[in-house]
Design brief:
With about 100 residues, this protein is mainly β. The chain starts with 6 loop residues before the first helix and ends with a strand. It has one domain: Thrombin, subunit H, CATH 2.40.10. It has a six-stranded antiparallel beta barrel. Strand 4 and strand 5 form a beta hairpin. The protein has one helix and six strands; from the N terminus they run αββββββ. About 5% of the residues lie in helices and about 60% in strands.
Length: about 100
Amino acid sequence: MPDELTQTTFAPHVGSSFRVHVGDRSLELTLAEVSDVRLSPRVEVFSLEFHGPAATPLPQAEYQFDHPVVGEFALFMVPVGRDGDVLHYEAVFNRLLPKQ
């Protein structure tokens, strides 16, 4: 997980679309929420919730993403629920911060 992908990287892009590559096809997921789950001053923990179409469900796996501002990156996503025609996915970041 690259260090440049932080909570502040994603926060301005809530509501925007991210392209997810699945084999030889791709689909759009919307970044619905960025949640801060900080446990201590030395640990950065946050989660991203994406929404996508229920017609094309994605299993728990690592996927290649791209976004016009954030760029290309890989995330491990887990399906966490369904609301009608919308599937909810979550990616969790958990890393130690440098000593200050």
